[in-house]
């Protein structure tokens, strides 16, 4: 099970957002290049931030974090759109609906059971870790939260600085 930390912060604009931290200290899967590569399509749309930017935002100084922040809907719309890995086994599955792009908070008719489907032919430990990591990010997006990868270079997930 992926150990994420989620919390709400108040923005200087008066709004509030929920962040879901994916910290390599608690999510060692982020340190495995094979897992990161298997999740590239979903991770490249996450926010990558230094721990310091998050700590400053918690204290009300959100300028650095806001510059980096990528909205959940933006991640959903631009991410590769993998079909749920359960598509062949689920009684409620609809191939056109059970994709990452349809994971929107409050969207009627979409099952809450979506799981990330990693590429084929992975080692078993990489496959399992990829499912957990990709599903954690997809779930954060579905809930309207901002997944933030902490202290990991964006290039590690295929995203430029």
Describe the 3D structure.
The chain is globular, with a radius of gyration of 16 Å. The model has no long low-confidence stretch (mean pLDDT 82). Helices cover 31% and strands 13% of the residues. The chain is an alpha/beta fold and 161 residues long. Strand 1 and strand 2 form a beta hairpin. The chain is built from 6 helices and 4 strands, in the order E-E-H-H-E-H-H-H-H-E. The relative contact order is 0.24. It has one domain.
Rounded mean pLDDT score? 82
Integer-rounded radius of gyration: 16 Å
| Total domain modules | 1
Q: In one word, what is the shape? A: globular
Order of helices and strands: EEHHEHHHHE
Structure summary, number of beta strands: 4
Number of helices: 6
Q: Structural class of the secondary structure composition?
A: alpha/beta
Write out the strand line-up for the largest beta sheet, numbering strands in chain order. Answer: 1-2-4-3
State the end-to-end distance: 29 Å
> How many strands, which pairing sense, and closed or not: the largest β-sheet?
4 strands, mixed
Q: Ranges with pLDDT <50 over ≥5 residues?
A: none
Strand content: 5-15%
Topology:
Blueprint: E1 5-10, E2 16-22, H1 33-38, H2 40-43, E3 47-49, H3 51-58, H4 63-68, H5 72-78, H6 124-142, E4 146-150
Parallel strand pairs: 2-4, 3-4
Antiparallel strand pairs: 1-2
Helix pairs in contact: 5-6
């Amino acid at each position: 099970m992926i150990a994420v930390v989620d919390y709400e912060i108040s923005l200087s604009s008066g709004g509030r957002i929920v962040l879901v931290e994916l910290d390599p200290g608690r999510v060692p899967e982020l340190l495995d290049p094979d897992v990161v590569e298997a999740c590239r399509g979903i991770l490249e749309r996450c926010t990558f931030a230094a721990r310091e930017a998050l700590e400053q935002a918690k204290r009300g100084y959100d300028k650095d974090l806001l510059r980096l922040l990528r909205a959940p809907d933006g991640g959903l719309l631009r991410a590769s759109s993998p079909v749920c890995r359960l598509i062949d086994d689920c009684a409620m599955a609809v191939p056109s609906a059970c994709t990452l792009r349809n994971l929107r908070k409050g969207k009627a008719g979409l099952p809450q059971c979506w799981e990330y489907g990693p590429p084929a032919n992975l080692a078993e430990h990489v496959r399992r870790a990829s499912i957990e990591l990709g599903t954690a990010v997809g779930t954060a997006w579905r809930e309207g939260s901002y997944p933030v990868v902490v202290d990991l270079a964006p290039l590690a997930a295929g995203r430029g600085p």
